[in-house]
Amino acid sequence: MRAIIVILICVIPLITRSQNSITIQGRMNKLNDSTKVYLQYPDTSGLIFSAIDSALIINGQFSFVLKNKVPEKVFLTIRRKSITSPPADDSDQLPLYLVFSNSSISVVSNTNHIKDATVIGSKTNGDYTAYNNLLKPHEKESQALLAKFKARGPNAIKDTLFMKELISQRDLQNKNNLDLAIRFMRRNNNSYFALEILQSCFLQGLINHDIAESEFNKFPIELRTTNLGKQVSKAIINSKIEPR
Hints:
Protein name: DUF4369 domain-containing protein
Structural class: alpha+beta
Domain DUF4369: 23-128
Order of helices and strands: EEEEEEEEHHHHHH
InterPro entries: DUF4369
Pfam family, one: DUF4369
Radius of gyration: 20 Å
Distance between the termini: 25 Å
Number of strands: 8
């Protein structure tokens, strides 16, 4: 069955966009020492991230100091696989939003997973968490639907009535997910994370370029001129030249 769409793609004070130096202080309260935390930077597209540095957890703590050309967003990853594994294979991963953040960011996890960490010093991460909390009921519905499909067994796809009902439920869930994303975006259009939601919806083909352009123009200039904003603008312009 085709994967159910869950948009996992926040309100930030627009202070200064660029930082010359940012310190990330991390604490993992339930993870063994000598575990490595990897810092992943984006490529020029802003969509693909790769590890450029790592830090050992010592006495439950780790740190990174980022200097010069600090990106708008990085990932902190604890890899249970090899360093060559693509980022998409990593389930224990935390997006860290550095744009409009404080010069010092604290990352604290009370589990052995960095994805569960609380981030202090980045309002955008707070928005990311708030949005994902709104998504949790939707995710439970999606998981229940997938479980229903699996429970039917290997011949489920041959049962046309069953599949018709399942697809109808899936489409409704997808619509509800998109409605949530758009509602959050429109209520928080001074948010970098909301701009990320717009990008995700547009690149997935969930909204057309007319809607994307209309929503994009509601964001303040400080956001539209970020690297993310420039990428969204370019994608909208290109879609007009080469319609989907």
